Amino acid sequence: MRPLVIIGAGGFGAETAALVEDINRDSPTWSLSGFLDDDSSCHGSRILGYPVLGSTDWLTDRPDHSYVVAIGDPHVRQDVCLRTSAATQNRAATLVHPGASIHESSTIAPGSIVCRGAVLTVRVRAQEHLIVNLNCTIGHDAILGRFTTLHPAVNISGASRTGDCVEVGTGAVLLPGVSVGSGSIIGAGAVVTRCIPPESLAKGVPAKVARELSKPVAEEHA
Question: Average pLDDT over the chain, rounded to whole?
Fold first, then answer.
């Protein structure tokens, strides 16, 4: 089995450890060494029996380990991923729960986490370091940008797309063909009926832009 660490010792990190256990029950794949977190106050603790080993620097001398970043905030996840990939030789793992349904015509890029009950239908393109949480559905020909986070029970309709670092709240819906610009947040329960510009907070039914956001999205990287 391949050695793995989870970066992020919070609640979603614990859920990701449980996801790894489910993968291994279905088909032994990963040897989970533990968690990494740059918050030193949690070093030495245990989560679901797995140790918090230290900060992300722990990976530097362990090129045999793969990693996945289990941090819901897209901008924080992006920052951690960029720092980790620049400083280490480690590979980003791709974790797909055995209870997810993904058609063979769809692709999931490295670093992504796809949780139980998720459905990706045909010709979906999921880019790097995506989080698809519990019971999300993603329709035909959708494109999900890097570092996008879909919280539980999000419904992405066919031919919709998100830019990079988009966060879609629990139970939100994107109607067919709409796009959400990079760096935007869609509020929980919102119904997106028209395209949302970059770096915007949109909420409501139908979703309307409530305000602009100030967080920049990093430039394209190799």
Answer: 94
Q: Looking at the domain 2-93, which fold is it?
A: Rossmann fold (3.40.50)
Phi-psi region of 177 (alpha: psi -120 to 50; beta: other; left: phi over 0): left
Buried-state track 107-132, b at ≥16 Cβ within 10 A, e below 16: ebeebbbbbebbbbbebbbbbbbbbb
User: What's the pTM?
Assistant: 0.93
Q: For residue 11, with 0-12 CB atoms within 10 Å meaning exposed, 13-18 middle and 19 or more buried, which class applies?
A: exposed
Res 215: pLDDT:
54
Which among 136, 140, 144 is positioned nearest to 117, based on CA atoms? 136
Where are the domain boundaries for CATH 3.40.50.20 in the chain? 2-93
Both tokens assigned to 204 = 């409501």
Cα 96 to Cα 19: distance, rounded to the nearest angstrom: 8
Eight-class DSSP state of 7: E
CATH 2.160.10.10 maps onto the chain at: 96-206
Please, what CATH class does the domain formed by 96-206 belong to?
Answer: mainly beta
3-state secondary structure of 25: helix
- Burial of 65 from C-beta contacts in 10 A (0-12 / 13-18 / 19+): buried
